[in-house]
Design goal:
Layout: H1 2-11, H2 14-54, H3 59-89
Helix pairs in contact: 2-3
């Protein structure tokens, strides 16, 4: 059993470790980078719906502002996707 483990360990090269690290880094980048935009967009939608429920006549202005805010918030998620792609295909 120990000899089999040593044989497997000796077959692992530095390139294999770098490849695994690259995939783990890209996954962490997307996982952590998507948490902030998701929370921000959820809060923006919740507060906009709360405002629309209190003042229905402001629906158009609140909807427009909410969509603009969510587009800006989503840009950070897109940046993390870009970094993850760079990690996968360039590094």
């Amino acid at each position: 059993m120990l000899q089999e483990a040593q044989a497997v360990a000796s077959g692992i090269s530095g390139a294999d470790i770098a490849l695994a690290a690259k995939y783990i880094a890209a996954g962490l980048c997307m996982g952590i980078g998507a948490i902030g935009p998701a929370i921000g967009e959820g809060l923006a939608a919740a507060h906009a719906l709360d405002g629309m429920a209190r003042q229905p006549e402001m629906q158009g202005a609140l909807m427009r502002t909410m969509v603009l805010g969510q587009a800006i918030t989503e840009s950070t998620g897109i940046y993390s996707l870009l970094i993850a792609i760079v990690l996968l295909f360039v590094v």
